[in-house]
Amino acid sequence: MTFETHSEEETSAFGRFLGEQLQRPITILLEGDLGTGKSVLARALARGLGIAENIPITSPTFTLMNHYAARIDLYHFDLYRLADADELIEIGFDDFAHSAGIALVEWPERLPDREFDHLQLHIERLSAESRQIGISARGIEPQLLVGSLQGWLSSR
Amino acid sequence: MLLLAIESSCDETAVAIVRDGREILSNLIVSQIDVHARFGGVVPELASRQHLQAICPLVDAALEEAGSNLEQIEGIAVTRGPGLIGALLVGVSYAKAVAFARQIPMVGVHHIEGHILAIQLEQKVEYPYLALAVSGGHSHLFRVDGIGKYVLLGRTIDDAAGEAFDKVAKMLGLPYPGGPVIDRLAAQGDASRVRFPRPMLKKPNLDFSFSGMKTSVLTYIESLAGQLDDQAVADIAAAFQEAAVDVLLQKTLRAAREQGLTRIVVAGGVACNSGLRREFKLASQGEQLAVYFPSPLLCSDNAAMLAVAGDAYLERGARSPSDLNAVSNWPLVEAASHFNLLP
Question: Among A22, A25, B182, B227, which one has the highest count of C-beta atoms within 10 angstroms of its own C-beta?
Answer without folding.
Answer: B182
